[in-house]
Amino acid sequence: MRSSTSQLSIHKLEVFCAVAERQSVSLAAKHLNIAQPVVSTHLKSLSEKLGVTLTRRSGRRTELTEEGQSVYRWALDVVVRTRELERELIDTQLGVAGKVSVGASMTPGSYVLPSIVASIRQRYPLGQISVHVMTSLSVTDAIRQGECDFAFTILDPRQEIQDLQIEHVRDEPLILVAASHFEIQAASTLLNELPYITAQHGTPRRNIEEYLLMEHGVSRSHIPMEFGHPEAIKRAVRTGAGVAFLFHSSIRDELASGVLQRIDTPGMDLQVPVYLVRRKNKTLNRFQSTMSKELIRSLREQDA
């Protein structure tokens, strides 16, 4: 490898990482919102500067060469640390101003954090809090790649978390609900036979739900619909098409207004832990640390 790395730009490295992760020049261009020829030019320029071939075509995919894999590991580390440094440089001595990027899985990010963040923002008007709502798998990826400083998420027990720092924050009750006009006579004794609307098969949210139900001997055979977001599940349930296990925080308003009704499940107390997640070697600046503590405190107070 030539000794010309000092001429490299962070942007070129970001483009290369995007291609490596998506195995596609066109998908990388779409993700970065730049023209496909620009991506190709950056790849060619980076390859020439380093003096090695970084990619090769394999069918419709763009794969990394052996040298490209080594460069990717190095480039990703540079990009991750640069993103973090850019945020950390905004920190002030008092920790009342700066930027923080917070990741969140669907339910905490959509139904719990918005009001909490709005309240905290009133107390820290100089701060900028960015909340990224995504699947729990995407959340941990964002933490590893430096896109988020920390995150609040559920975790599939099978997820790899050895490189992450995990702290239990609260438990989310998972309760069975149906539309107000749904017939629930003797439903509590016929849980296996009800029509369920649930998360998509293979997702952490679905896996956690299945695991908890198996512990209580519930094996669902009738799942007519699957959706990727709790809001979609909730809207389908409101039509009367079926029942669903949903986090209590996502349906407070519907239960209070009577749009949805709770179905009793005697002997079943389903609780799903929500965790604070961050990289083990990640050091929070003062503002990020302050926001982490504020959010944890508010989440736990809301749960009390």
Structure overview:
- This protein has 304 residues and is an alpha/beta fold.
- The protein has 3 domains: 5-80, Orthogonal Bundle (Arc Repressor Mutant, subunit A), CATH 1.10.10.10; 98-170 and 273-303, 3-Layer(aba) Sandwich (D-Maltodextrin-Binding Protein, domain 2); 172-271, 3-Layer(aba) Sandwich (D-Maltodextrin-Binding Protein, domain 2), CATH 3.40.190.
- Helices cover 43% and strands 21% of the residues.
- The protein contains 10 helices and 11 strands.
- The strands form 3 sheets. Strands 3, 4, 5, 6, 9, 10 and 11 form a 7-stranded mixed beta sheet that branches. Strands 1-2 form a two-stranded antiparallel sheet. A two-stranded parallel sheet has the order 7-8.
- Strand 7, helix 7 (204-215) and strand 8 (225-227) form a beta-alpha-beta unit.
- The longest helix is centred in the N-terminal third of the chain and has 23 residues, at 66-88.
- The chain is globular.
- Residues 1-6 have low confidence and may be disordered.
Number of strands: 11
Beta-strand share of residues = 15-25%
Query: What are the segments in which pLDDT stays under 50 over at least 5 consecutive residues?
Result: 1-6
Oligomerization status of the protein chains: single chain
Inertia-based shape: globular
- The helix tally amounts to 10
Q: Give me the Rg, rounded.
A: 23 Å
Helical residue percent band: 40-55%
Q: What is the name of the CATH architecture of the largest domain?
A: 3-Layer(aba) Sandwich
* Category from helices, strands and their pairing: alpha/beta
| CATH homologous superfamily (4th level) name of the largest domain | Periplasmic binding protein-like II
* Mean pLDDT over all positions: 88
The arrangement of helices and strands along the chain is HHHEEHEHEHEEEHEHEHEEH
Report how far apart the termini are: 58 Å
